[in-house]
Design brief:
Keywords: Membrane, Transmembrane, Transmembrane helix. With 39 residues, this protein is mainly α. It contains 1 helix and no strands. It has one domain (1-39). It is 95% helix and 0% strand.
């Protein structure tokens, strides 16, 4: 049981890390597109 819980926590941490990276990437992309459009 203990091993399953720690692996679940690890999966959640990886999911959160990928989600944060994805949000930052999309935000940077949108910011760059807006800068190009405004230029």
């Amino acid at each position: 049981m203990r091993g399953t819980k720690s692996s679940l926590v690890k999966k959640l941490l990886w999911f959160a890390a990928y989600w944060i990276i994805g949000v930052l990437a999309v935000g940077a992309l949108a910011y760059g597109l807006r800068a190009v459009i405004n230029a």
